[in-house]
Amino acid sequence: MTTLPTGTVAFVFTDIEGSTHLAQELPDDEWAAVLARHREVIRTAVAAHDGVEVSTEGDGFFIAFPRTADAVSAAVEAQRALSAEAWPEDAAIRVRMGIHTGDGRLDGDGSYVGADVHRAARVAAAGHGGQVLLSETTSGLVADELPAGVGLRGLGEHRLKDLRPERIFQLVIEGERTEFPPIRSLDRRPNNLPTQLTSFVGRDVELAEAGALLNSTRLLTLTGPGGTGKTRLSLQLAADVAERFADGTWFIALEPVRDPALIAATILTTLGLVESGGRAARDILLEWLGGRQVLLVLDNFEQVIDGAPVVAELLRGAPRISIVVTSRAPLRVSGEQEYPVPGLPAPRDLLALSDLQKMNLPAEDRLLDAATANQYEAVRLFIARAVAVRPDFKVTNENAPAVAGIAARLHGMPLAIELAAARVKLLPPDAILERLEHQLGVLSAGSRDLPARQQTLRGAIAWSHDLLGAGERRLLARLSVFVGGCELDTAEAVCGPPSELDGVEVIDCLTFLADQSLVRAEEIDGGLRFRMLDTIREFAAEQLTARGEREEIERRHTAAFVALAESLTSRLSGDDQRRWLGRLERDHDNIRAVLDRAVTAGDGESAIRIGFSMWRYWQKRGHLAEARRRLQAIAEAPWSHEDPTLRARLMEALGGVAWWQADIPAMGRAYAEALELWESIGDPREIANALYNDSFRYAVSEMAGERDPERVGFDQMQRARDLATAAGDERGRANALWGIGNWLYFHNADDRGISQFDEAVGVFRGIGDRTMEAWSHHMLGTAQIRLGGPLEEARGNVETAMRLFHGFGDVAGLTLTLDDFASVAIAAGDLPRAAKLWGAARALSAAGGVGLADFVDTQFEFYGRPSTRQAFDPAELDRIAQEGRSMTLDESVAYALETDIDSLAPHDHAGVAR
What is the reported pLDDT for 453? Predict the structure, then answer.
C-alpha cells in the first residue's frame, strides 16, 4: 500500500472538461481508449515527480506531493504531454488542474481530512480545460522555483464555492494556451451570498444529501434548533448549486421580520426591486421571477411561519425557481421536502454510557487518542476554529479526550462548538470541558461581527424562546427539571394540568415545541420521549428560576420518579423486565438528580425509597460502584436512622450491592442490621427475607475466608423457608430453596444442592420470576459441572441461564455464565476456548464494577487442572485470554453459545457499537 505524504502537502485535483459530453458522443470503446490514454499521460508525469495518486474517480485524479515545486512541475509536464498527444479529431482532451498546499492530515482510516483538501478541489473546479490554477499559498511557495518556460499570472481575488475570498494565480506555460475565459468563481452568476470568513468544516454528508434532495424538489426546508448550523449549510448548498441558476442565487434574511405580510416585500428589497404604482409587493415579485431561473434562500422563517402560503404561491407562479428555507419548523405546504439538520458527527461521550454499553464497544473504541478524535467532524470544526484564535493549537493524545468530550457534550452543534473553541485562547480544553457544567456562561463571548442572535448561545436560544406563547414558555421552563429527557407520563405529572399552561394540554405543547425544534421527540418502545439539547435546557432552567417555580417543580419531579421507581421494582424480574429496565435506563439521570437533591436536603424518605427501589436495576445494569457510593452515603447520614422500616430497607439494598461486589464483611454487617430491625418490627415475611439474606455470609463462607462449622447459615435458610411457607409466600420459599442449594454447593455437597436448585427452578418459573429462574439454572449447571455429570445437561442449564441474562442485560449473570462456559470447555479438555471465555468474563466483570474478578480467577485455577494446563504454552493461553478481553459483550455471548450475533435475542444494549 502506498504511503501518503503528511505534513505540508501539495494537493492536486484534475478532471477532463466536457467529459460527460464526450462520453455520450463517442462510441464506448473509443471513449474507453481515450480515457485510458489520458490516465497514462497523467500517471507518467506524476510518477516522474514523486507524486502519490490518492484516488481516481471517473475522469478525475486526486494526487498528493511532498514538495509543492514537484506538484507544479508534474502539472506542467502533464499539460504539455496532453496537448502534444494525437487525440481523435472529435475527442480533443483538455484537462483543468488546481493546486493548493496545506495540512496533510490523515484520519484513522488513512484518508486525508481537513479544509485544505476541499480548498484544492474548489480551486480546480474554477478552471477551464488546459488551465492550471494555484491558490495564493501555493503560488508563494513556488514563485522562485518555477520550471523553465513557466510564469505566474495573478487573476485577482475571487470567491470560490466555499464562499471565502481567495487570490488565484494561473501558470503561464510557454507554448501552451494562456488565454482563458473568466474563471468559474461563485461571482460569475448574480448572487448576494455573504462572504464567509471561516471555512466550511464537515457537513459533507449533509451537503450531499441536501443537494440530492434539491435535484428532486423545488422547496427544501432545513429544520433544527438555533445553533445547529442550518444557515451555514444553506449558504454552502446555495453556493454549490449556483451554476444551475442562470439568473441568480439570493439570500433573504428574515431574522428581523415578525409580520408574515412583509415576506414578499423583504424578498423584493433584497433583489433590488421597489414597490411602485400601488401594486402589491407579491405581484411585482411574481412578475419579476416569472420565467427566470432563480434560487431563493429564505433564512430564519420560523417567526413568520404563518406566511408559509406565500412561499407556495411563489413556486406556483414562477415555475423555474427553487427555494431553500431554514426554519425551526417545517412550513407544511404542498411539495415541501424537509431535511432535519443533525449535529455534526461527534465522538461518544463515554462518561454518559453505562458500563454495559462501554463493554459492548469494540476494544479500540474504549479509548480516544488524537488520531481517533480527528475522524469526527465536530472535532475538526473545533480544531479549525481554535486555530483561528490560537494558531499553535493542536489536538494531542493528552488533550484529545477533553476535545472529544466538548464535541460530545455539545451534541455536535456547530454554533456551540465554535463558541467553545473561541475560549481556547484563554483556557485549555480540559478546563473548557470542566466548565461546560455552566456552559451558557462559558460560551458567552462570540465574534462581534456576527449577528446579535449568533454572538452567544444565550442569544440564539432566547431569540427562539421569545417567539413562544406564554403556556409554551412555561412548559419549556418546567421541562428543564428533567435530566436526559422525559416521557409523556412524567411530563404530565411534573409540568401540570392545562389550567397551568394557558389551557393547553402537555402533549399539545410538547408537540408544538418539537415542531419548533426546541425539544426533540424520539419514538422508543412504542412511545415518545422528549428531550432538550443541554444548551437549551440550561437556558430554560434559568427561566424556571426566574419564574419562582423551581421549588415546586423539583418537588413534583422527586415525587414522580420515586413513584416510578417503586412501581417498577416488582417488574424487574419477569418476562417483561427488559422493557422496564430500559425505562429506568432512560430515566437514570432523572433518578440521579432526585437522589442528589434528596441527600443534600436530608430528605431521608425520598432518598431511601428510591435507593431501595433502584438497587436491583443498578445490579443488573452494572452500576454497582455508583450504587455502593450512593447507598453508603445515605447510610452514614444521621437522618437515615429515623425510621426503622426505611433503615431496614436501606440495609437490605446496601447488603445486596456489597454481595454483588463480593465484599462479604460489608454484606454481613448490612444484612445483620436489617435482620435485627425486622425482628424488632415483627413482620414475618420480612423476617423470612432477612434471614435468607443474612445467611449468605455463612453460605459462602469459603469466599469470606472462614468456615461455618455450626451450620448457622444452613439453619437460617431452613428457618426462612419454614416462615415463608407458613406465610404462603412462594417467592420467599423459592429464595430459601435457592439459598439452601447455595450453602450446600459452597460446602461441597453438590449432589444435595442440585435437588434444591431443581425445585427452585420450577417454583421461580411458576411465579414468573425469570431472574431467579436464570440464577437457578446457572447454579444447577455449575453444580453439575463440579460433580462431573453429563456435560450436555450442564451446558443446557448454563445456556438457558445465559440467554435469559442476555435478554435482561444482566452484567453479573453474564459474567458468571461466561465463566460457566469456560468451566465446560475445561471439562471437555479445550483449554484455549476456556482461556478466551475466561478473558471475556474477566473483562466484563471489571468493566461492570462487579466484584467477581477474583472469583472468576479462582474458578479458572480450580478447573484448569495442572495436568490439563501443562499441555499448553502459558504465554499462548495469555494471548488467547487477551483476545477474549477485547470482544464486545455480544461477541462474547455469541462465542460462548457458538452462534452468530444476529441470532441472539435482542436486549436494551444490542447493537451498541460505532
Answer: 40
Q: Where are the beta strands (DSSP E) in 35-93?
A: 52-57, 60-65
Joined together, the cell numbers standing for residue 747 give 460446602
Contacts of 535 (CB under 8 A, 6+ apart): 227, 410, 413, 416, 439, 440, 443, 457, 461
pLDDT reading at 687 higher than 80: yes
What is the b/e burial string over 192-229, where b = at least 16 CB atoms within 10 angstroms of the residue's CB? ebeebebbbbbbeebeeebeebbeebbbbbbbbbbbbb
Q: b/e for 486-502, b at 16 or more Cβ within 10 A?
A: bbeebbbbbbbeeeebe
Q: How far apart are the C-alpha atoms of 839 and 886, rounded to whole Å?
A: 8
Residue 400 and residue 369: Cα distance in Å, rounded?
6
Q: Is 262 exposed, middle or buried (0-12, 13-18, 19+ CB in 10 A)?
A: middle
| Strand ranges (E), 224-294 | 249-253
Question: Lowest-pLDDT range, 438-447, 481-490, 542-551?
Answer: 438-447
pLDDT in tens, 757-789: 888 888 888 888 888 899 889 988 988 888 877
Residue with cell 438555533: 226
Contacts of 110 (CB under 8 A, 6+ apart): 4
User: How large is the C-alpha radius of gyration of the chain?
Assistant: 34
Which residue, 186, 239, 233, 242, is CA-closest to 207? 233
Q: Report residue 145: phi and psi, to 5°.
A: -130, 30
End-to-end CA distance of the chain: 26
User: Can you give the pLDDT at residue 100?
Assistant: 97
User: Do the beta carbons of residue 562 and residue 594 sit within 8 Å?
Assistant: yes
CA-to-CA distance for 74 and 65, rounded, in angstroms? 10
Taking alpha carbons only, the member of 807, 809, 837, 804 closest to residue 823 is 837
Q: With H, G, I as helix, E, B as strand and everything else as coil, classify residue 154.
A: strand
Cα separation, 691 vs 722, in Å, equals: 11
Contact predicate 329/302, CB 8 Å: yes
The neighbour count for residue 636, using CB atoms within 10 Å, is 8
Section 871-889 average pLDDT: 77
In tens, the pLDDT along 24-73 reads 888 889 999 999 999 999 999 999 999 999 999 889 999 999 999 999 99
Q: What is the DSSP letter of 903?
A: G
Q: Does the predicted model carry a pTM greater than 0.90?
A: no
- Single-letter amino acid, residue 182: P
- Return d(Cα 468, Cα 502) in angstroms, integer: 12
Better-predicted residue by pLDDT, 170 or 618:
170
Q: Taking a C-beta distance cutoff of 8 angstroms, is the pair 595, 626 a contact?
A: no
Cα within 13 Å of Cα(792), Cβ side: 0
Cell readout for 647 is: 433503615
Q: What proportions of the chain, in percent to the nearest 5, are helix, strand and coil?
A: 60, 10, 30
Residues facing residue 529 across a β-bridge: 487, 522
> CA 843, CA 836: separation in Å to the nearest integer?
11
Of the two residues 279 and 477, the one the predictor is more confident about is 477
With 0-12 / 13-18 / 19 or more C-beta atoms within 10 angstroms meaning exposed / middle / buried, residue 303 is buried
Q: How many CB atoms lie within 10 A of CB 862?
A: 11
Q: Are strands 527-531 and 486-487 parallel, antiparallel or unpaired?
A: antiparallel
Alpha helices in 271-399 (DSSP H): 281-289, 308-317, 355-359, 370-373, 377-389
For the record, the C-alpha cell of 840 comes out as 471475556
* Mean pLDDT calculated for residue range 459-470: 74
pLDDT at 695 over 90: no
CA dist 406 and 240 (Å) reads: 30
Phi then psi for residue 453, to 5 deg, are -60, -30
Does residue 96 sit in helix, strand or coil?
strand
Grid look-up 491558490 returns 135
Q: Residues 326, 236: contact at Cβ < 8 Å? A: no
- Fill in the DSSP letter of residue 596: H
Q: What's the pLDDT at 438?
A: 57
